[in-house]
Design goal:
The complex is a heterodimer of chains A (291) and B (215). Chain A is mainly alpha-helical and 291 residues long. Chain A is 69% helix and 5% strand. Chain A has a 3-stranded antiparallel β-sheet with strand order 1-2-3. Chain B has a single domain, classed as 3-Layer(aba) Sandwich (Rossmann fold). The chains are: A mainly alpha (291), B alpha/beta (215). The complex binds S-adenosylmethionine.
Chain lengths: 291, 215
């Protein structure tokens, strides 16, 4: 048996517990997890590698404060969380506004009164709040993810962040994943079909598909545009996460690609005619289910 | 002046009784310093409220404590005065309040701060030792489950625990009385319930439950 403890490892050899001190206590502290309750008491075994209990606790405290301070600092910098939570709230707010407007319409059909006017005023207030939240999301996402925002626009950039869960995670996603972010539901359905032995195509388009550069292209060109954009977004996410500075050439290359595809004559390219057609069919299949 | 727990005093002042801990440290959350004492404000700390309601737990100076939901350290600061030869492992999952908590941890020698989620105790299972006391104040719907998981992993046999429960966080629609009854019953299925009671008027619709782990 072996256990991960904050000061290193404890191993059981010939029925005896042996403590081994790690050369990097910060690292071992971070990895000190064990699924089951320990069958020994930590400081007791720790005394094998520490001079005294005092030494044990002094070291533990020092490492805990160091690791925790770093963690806290990292967490606080996570304005990405702020954006994600705002976005989730915005979705709920939208639902509420729609629902309230519907109720109000029902009432107004019967009678318009001071009360219904008051009601309407409150809904207008909620709409003002909605605009403020949208503005805030835009401000923060532009600040924390300038490259993603430049390419995809604030709305899609924020959604990508939400779907990935954090800027860090987004930065480590491959382009192929970014391309289908937001399509998890249909992906899941497709996989379920396949498990049942039925034919199914995995989705190729996620949230980025609402981007005007993709939407305004003829259907058979959209796949190529989406792939290109996803590749650039993957680079953008890494830039945003590690450097946070805008590199305008990225968005520029996306625009160029769009112009190029738009101008391209309607004859399918020789290299990938098959794939284009496959995507074409798949989109047709998916369409009715989506709306 | 009466010492009710090690370093915990009830002091007569201006005709009123106030709770305080004997402390060589300064004010942490805006509480008054009265000579060598720090006032322990019951509306800010549920543990203080419990004591003032007359339920006194004999916390020993050398106890090892696991504290879940440490926030910025209001209660921990007083608990650290009490277990002045012990250790407090303090778990909190929100970074914001923990900034202030870290100042406390720097100042005191008996606090180990852990920015972790109390619902995943295995993540700090190689750090926290077997403890004499588990205290939980996290106001979560599944807080009892979390309490059990931590007690299973860290509380010594015969060790004690206190859980603070806000009715509304368990069930926002049911009557508080009903919620509390259910909570006490659920705790009683696995632990010995030593005492429970309301924290009114200091904390509305809150109760404490004091338990012991018996084999
Ligand atoms: C009511 S406050 C605690 C106040 C503190 N006990 C005091 O008296 O000084 C509840 C705290 O529990 C934290 N919390 C809630 N759920 C948690 C969890 N699963 N793990 C760790 N902390 C949690 C919250 O972030 C919050 O800071």
């Amino acid at each position: 048996m072996k256990w991960n403890v904050w000061f290193g490892e404890v191993v059981e050899e010939d029925g005896k517990l042996i403590a081994k001190k790690s050369s990097d206590l910060v690292e071992s502290f971070k990895n000190a997890s064990n699924p089951e309750a320990l069958p020994f008491n930590l400081p007791e075994v720790g005394l094998q590698v520490f001079e005294s209990l005092e030494d044990y606790y002094r070291t533990l405290r020092k490492i805990a404060i160091k690791v925790t301070s770093e963690k806290v600092e990292r967490e606080l910098k996570r304005e990405d969380r702020y954006v994600i939570l705002l976005l989730k709230a915005l979705d709920k707010l939208n639902e509420s506004i729609n629902m309230l407007e519907e109720k109000l319409r029902d009432i107004e059909e019967v009678k318009i009164s001071e009360t219904t006017e008051d009601f309407r005023e409150r809904i207008e207030e909620l709409k003002r709040l909605r605009r403020r939240i949208e503005k805030e999301i835009e401000d923060v996402i532009t600040k924390i993810a300038p490259n993603l925002t430049e390419i995809a626009g604030a709305v899609i950039a924020a959604r990508l962040l939400e779907k990935a869960g954090s800027l860090e995670r987004l930065a480590f996603l491959p382009a192929s994943k970014i391309q289908i972010l937001g399509a998890e539901k249909s992906l899941y359905k497709a996989l379920a079909r396949m498990r049942r032995g039925k034919p199914a195509k995995t989705p190729k388009h996620g949230i980025i598909f609402i981007h005007p550069f993709i939407r305004t292209l003829p259907k058979r060109k959209r796949g190529r545009m989406a792939r290109f954009m996803a590749a650039k977004l993957a680079i953008a996410a890494k830039l945003d996460y590690f450097k946070g500075e805008l590199d305008e050439s990225l968005a520029e290359s996306v625009r160029k690609k769009y112009e190029e595809l738009r101008r391209e004559k309607d004859k399918p390219k020789k290299e990938e005619p098959k794939q284009e057609r496959r995507e074409e069919k798949q989109k047709k299949m998916k369409k009715p289910k989506r709306r | 002046m009466k010492e009710v727990i090690h370093n915990v005093f009830i002091i007569e002042r201006e005709g009123r009784e106030i709770l305080a801990t004997k402390s060589k440290y300064g004010s942490h959350y805006g509480e008054r310093k009265i000579g060598e004492f720090r006032e322990w404000i019951p509306s800010r700390s549920k543990l203080a409220a419990m004591i003032l309601k007359g339920h006194i737990i004999d916390i020993k100076p050398d106890w090892k404590v696991l504290y879940l939901g440490a926030a910025s350290g209001t209660t921990v600061s007083h608990l650290a005065d009490i277990v002045d030869e012990g250790i407090i492992y303090a778990v909190e999952y929100s970074a914001k309040p923990f900034v202030k908590f870290l100042q406390l941890a720097e100042e005191r020698r008996n606090i180990i701060p852990l920015l972790e989620d109390a619902s995943t105790p295995w993540k700090y299972n190689g750090i926290v030792e077997k403890v004499d006391f588990v205290y939980q104040d996290i106001a979560q719907k599944n807080q009892i489950e979390i309490f059990f998981a931590n007690i299973d992993m860290f509380l010594k046999d015969g060790g004690e625990g206190v859980i603070m429960v806000k009715a509304r966080s368990i069930d926002s629609t049911a009557e508080p009385e009903v919620v509390f009854e259910r909570v006490v019953e659920e705790l009683g299925e696995k632990l010995e319930v030593i005492a429970h009671g309301s924290l009114e008027p200091f904390h509305k619709d809150h109760i404490y439950v004091h338990v012991r782990k018996t084999k």
